[in-house]
Write a structure and sequence with these properties.
By secondary structure, this protein is α/β, with parallel strands linked by helices. It has ten helices and eleven strands. The strands form three sheets. It has a seven-stranded parallel β-sheet with strand order 3-2-1-4-5-6-10, sandwiched between helices. Helix 4 packs parallel to helix 5 and helix 6 packs across helix 8.
């Protein structure tokens, strides 16, 4: 059976993609760097040109590129590293994939848009506001130029309930704030569309069997500010959330955030792929599972 490379397999999305592809009977070579991938896999520093080139000597016919620096604030502080991994590496991988005609999927972001006129279609002009978005926009251009048959998947903020030591910052931070005993200020200005990693992995698994090219947007349609998200978690914990203080001002982060980058998923649905569900359908079981894991119920 032909092998699929999954980069960033030690991370939240990459680990889920690896698990789902293996459950579907695919042979996966999981590549990790900051964290080792679960099960069979290997460590690989994609920022190292020699290690990247070594991938061309392996036998693989598919590539799901999840690895990236995803923290906008880190990308502002480390622009050279962000540009290398987020922009240059995807183009280099696209060259390798094109050379062998492999099926390639590259993970991009809703942050390629400025967030001023949602919802955004795949064909709408991109204009990122921060370094993270700039590097991911550059990656899209490089991947398309090197390999027009590649598929670029734009995704929004993700959450999941991975096995330790992995974390899901959106869920973890929401739980921490919801459980707090003292007032907590929570952003109520920036609108995101929290999307379950399992749903994104299901889309990737689908496209392994149903080839597509170009850009496809993968997002739930249910909007939430951090405040609304945290209030939903608080209520699932049986709390009224009165200690949560919604704020509209900038909370002092290094990178500016777009206000609303809602991704239109019309093309995703037209291709027959599963459209991610809203977080209201997923959170109850995830919060319960986390309570069990943490020994609270």
């Amino acid at each position: 059976m032909q092998t699929i490379l999954v980069t960033g397999a030690g991370g939240l999305l990459g680990s889920t993609v690896t698990a789902q592809l293996r459950a579907a009977g695919r042979t996966v070579l999981a590549l990790g760097h900051s964290r080792p991938p679960a099960g069979d896999g290997r460590m690989c520093n994609l920022e190292d040109a020699a290690e990247l080139a070594a991938l061309d000597r392996l036998d693989w016919a598919g590539l799901v590129h999840c690895a990236a620096y995803r923290s906008p604030d880190y990308c502002e502080a480390e622009p050279a590293r962000a540009n290398r991994l987020n922009a240059e590496v995807p183009g280099d991988l696209a060259v390798l994939a094109a050379r062998r005609g492999a099926r390639m999927m590259h993970i991009s972001t809703d942050y390629v848009f400025p967030g001023t006129h949602p919802p955004y279609r795949e064909s709408d002009p991109i204009r990122p506001l921060n370094r993270y978005g700039i590097t991911k926009a550059e990656a899209e251009h490089r991947v398309v130029d090197a390999y027009p048959e590649a598929l670029i998947l734009r995704i929004p903020a993700l959450y999941g309930n991975p096995a330790l030591p992995l974390t899901s910052p959106l869920l973890d931070e929401g739980l921490q704030a919801a459980r707090a005993e003292t007032p907590v200020e929570v952003d109520d200005r920036i609108v995101r569309y929290p999307t379950w990693t399992d749903d994104v992995a299901a889309v990737i698994t689908y496209f392994m069997d149903h080839p597509a090219a170009g850009i496809v947007q993968v997002s739930s349609g249910e909007a939430a500010t951090r405040y609304r998200w945290t209030m939903a978690i608080a209520r699932l914990l049986g709390r009224d959330g009165g200690h949560l203080v919604p704020v509209q001002r900038d909370l002092g982060r290094a990178a500016p955030r777009p206000v609303d980058c809602h991704l239109d998923t019309t093309r995703l649905a037209s291709l027959g792929a599963p459209v991610p569900q809203g977080y209201s359908a997923v959170l109850p079981e995830l919060v319960r599972a986390r309570q069990v894991r943490d020994g609270l119920i």
